[in-house]
């Protein structure tokens, strides 16, 4: 092969390779251009997505400020109880006795609101058994570390169950007759109160509130006005001292004085003498491990000839209740009580009540209850009660 032929072949190969390389370069550029367009499209979509995320974040922030910020310190709770009562001298009854909702809000570390809204007996209205009630609605203010004040509608500081009466907190399906008929729980008024804790374990309460307005029967429980356009000619003055410095022990005593428990005799056909009234209540709660005993005494003294003529110038009651928590799930109790809304009468009108029962806790805040009650004295009856209750 001569040199000329070899040179010609080499030139041809170089020309061919250059053409191929040129074609590959064109194709590569096309691919790169396409990829660049894809990247631009992805970049645009990414920018759009970022903008949407920023907008969503702004919306979440607005919602948080308008809802979470406003309600972050708001609490909701409540309790309820269903009862079945079967006594030998009356028809058996089943009743969703109470459905209650709590609403509270902390305005600041020192100012808070609390309320309790209740429906009794399942349905309310004209001709119905139930009632819709506002049992609490007050603002509490911490004046300093030892002193606070309430203003509004609140429970009177008296007895064991008047301020704490959720079903899992007491034994027995129904609330005891002494606190119900003598104190009378649940009892709320409107006004102003102060709480002062001078030392650890000692608490002093004082309140100036609306008062009772008894009818011509002078029965204490019927005198609750429930702050429903309540007559307030004569206010009530309440004081309580409570001692809890010893672990497991609570001692407390309450005094209330009302200048006229008839509010000027407005419920009577003719004006009557002023009937000033004084309530004295004292109780003790002592718990040792799983054993607890509760004891309470309450007495009303009412001045006036009308109350004395009915034998209702004195109205008294007391009870003793030991209980034992067998396990985390099961607790048992017994209670003996006496109360008399006619204690000033020469005839025996005392009601005697003996209760025994059991509570089964599905949860610490959910309870099933059963008890047997033997009523004696001025009432002769026996029966049993079944109940279900909860709190949250």
UniProtKB/TrEMBL annotation:
Coiled coil (residue ranges): 25-66
UniProt GO MF annotations: porin activity
SUPFAM superfamilies, per database record: Porins
Any one annotated GO CC term: membrane
InterPro entries in the record: Gram_neg_porin_domain, Porin_dom_sf
Residue ranges occupied by any Porin domain in the UniProt entry: 222-374
Keywords linked to the UniProt accession: Coiled coil, Signal
Signal peptide segment: 1-21
UniProt name for this protein: Porin domain-containing protein
Biological source species: Colwellia psychrerythraea (strain 34H / ATCC BAA-681) (Vibrio psychroerythus)
């Amino acid at each position: 092969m001569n040199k000329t032929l070899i040179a010609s072949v080499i030139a041809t190969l170089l020309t061919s390779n250059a053409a191929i390389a040129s074609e590959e370069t064109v194709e590569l550029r096309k691919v790169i251009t396409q990829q660049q367009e894809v990247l631009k499209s992805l970049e645009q979509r990414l920018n759009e997505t970022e903008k949407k995320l920023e907008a969503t974040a702004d919306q979440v922030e607005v919602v948080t400020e308008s809802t979470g910020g406003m309600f972050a310190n708001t609490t909701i709770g409540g309790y309820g109880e269903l009862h079945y009562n079967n006594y030998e001298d009356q028809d058996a009854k089943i009743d969703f006795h109470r459905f209650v909702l709590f609403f509270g809000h902390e305005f600041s570390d020192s100012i808070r609101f609390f309320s309790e809204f209740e429906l009794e007996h399942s349905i309310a209205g004209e001709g119905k058994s139930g009632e819709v009630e506002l049992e609490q609605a007050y603002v509490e203010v911490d004046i300093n570390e030892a002193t606070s004040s309430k203003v509004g509608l609140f429970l009177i500081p008296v007895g064991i169950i008047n301020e704490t009466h959720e079903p899992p907190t007491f034994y027995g399906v129904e609330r005891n007759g002494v606190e119900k008929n003598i104190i009378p729980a649940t009892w709320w008024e409107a006004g102003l109160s102060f709480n002062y804790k001078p030392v650890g374990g000692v608490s002093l309460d004082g309140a100036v509130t609306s008062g009772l307005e008894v009818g011509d029967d002078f029965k204490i429980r019927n005198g609750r006005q429930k702050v429903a356009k309540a007559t307030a000619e004569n206010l009530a003055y309440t004081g309580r001292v409570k001692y809890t410095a010893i672990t497991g022990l609570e001692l407390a005593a309450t005094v209330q004085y009302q200048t006229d428990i008839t509010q000027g005799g407005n419920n009577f056909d003719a004006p009557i003498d002023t009937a000033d009234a004084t309530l004295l209540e004292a109780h003790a709660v002592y718990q040792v491990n799983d054993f607890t005993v509760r004891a309470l005494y309450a007495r009303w003294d009412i001045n006036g000839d009308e109350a004395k003529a009915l034998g209702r110038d004195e109205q008294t009651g007391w009870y003793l209740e030991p209980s034992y928590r067998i396990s985390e799930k099961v607790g048992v109790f017994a209670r003996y009580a006496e109360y008399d809304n006619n204690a000033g009468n020469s005839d025996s009108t005392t009601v005697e009540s003996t209760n025994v029962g059991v509570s089964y806790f599905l949860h610490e805040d959910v309870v099933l209850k059963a008890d047997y009650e033997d009523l004696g004295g001025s009432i002769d009856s026996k029966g049993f009660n079944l109940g279900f209750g909860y709190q949250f």
